[in-house]
Give the backbone structure.
Amino acid sequence: MKKPSAGIASQVELKTIQPISATERQGKISDLFTIWFGSNIMMLSVITGSLAVCMFNLSFFTATAAVIVGNLAGAVFMALHSAQGSQLGVPQMIQTRGQFGSYGALLVVTLVVIMYLGFFASNLVLGGQGLHAICPPLSINSGIAIVGVLSVTATAFGYNLIHTYTRIMSWLSGSALLLSFAWILLVNGLPETFFIHRPPTFAGFFGTMSIAALWQLAYAPYVSDYSRYMPENSHPRKVFWASYWGCSLGSIFPMILGVVIALCWNDSDIVTGLVTLTGGASTLIVVIFSVGIAATNAMNLYCGTLCALTVGQTLAPSWSPRSGARIILALGMFTLSLVLAVKGQGNFLVNYTHFILLLLYVLIPWTAINLVDYYLIAHGNYHVPSFFRQDGGIYGYFNLRAMACYLLGILVQIPFIATDLYTGCIARAMGGADISWIVGLAVVCPAYYLMSKGIRASAHSPA
């Protein structure tokens, strides 16, 4: 099928969490590459890469290696979730009812809504700071409002406009990224201390790798929301690889730019560093990156509203929310995020680091359960009508096995956690290295499979 035309992109998407029928399917596999490539090249990914130097004091080569390994590893899980959307045609959090039950999924869905609000607020801060840096008369709060309005507008129109937006940003943001590297390397030049040896630490490498992996894993709860309109004959492997390389490449290069800026600038204010180091090209670069933030924020807000609508539909199963409900809810969530952004901008870097590490611990057990159930137990066969019944249909109100494994996944990570707020005994013995996410996956995947294989497989047979 053809890509959405300008006319289709400008139309308001009427559906929200309802299944997408065969006649409503549209788009090409390449759209999945551009939506994840274009949405990742932005200021927040640059900031995330800079943490390798600002927080963990790594050298260029060690930081780059950790960024690459973390993104490539985390993107595997992200892309596996993406392949689910084209097969089932429903949002990711609706599908979660197939693993946790109709009411059991509410806990996970609520946590994901909080996640979207956090990322949305973080992006607003960076967008506002970027616009203020290139135009000082424009206050940070005014910049936050501008980025927010762009985000809400795209969310209001929905799926097609967001895909079109990110397709355009793939070219614009990609060009701005190349221009940034070229200006810093060829025009500005690297300082003599750029390649100075910084003794790598186990904790620093794994800390950076974990943050990069979480960057990818954080997309897992909504990645299939952007593949659910793909034609039913879309091969899952093609969906997987388009999403995998789009998200991996779109994340790795801006994160490496963040490493370069941090080493050249020697200051935690990466936004100002980017503006200074790119000189005469800074205005164009920062404007593009700030507009790119609005594209990513539209995705966060769009999926946040779908999750919130999922909660509402669980409690009122006869309700079938449409575009009006999505727009009203998006405005409410935007207002709340705006408050968080304005209030939390003063200590942004520290707050952001704590926030993404917290996400790591609660997302890992969910993604393990979801992927094991989908690929190893149900083999992609779900009874979609049961997702929309209050009693959960063949999946019931609660799946106690999934909920027990989810709790187990959080508990087993505690000794391996390494943050400023809390460091577990094993993480302390390992010099502060945080490998909690690896432990969580290693424990939950086999535990859920062994507990659920026979029982869950028979439950999926009516599909």
In short: Residues 282-315 form the longest helix (34 residues).
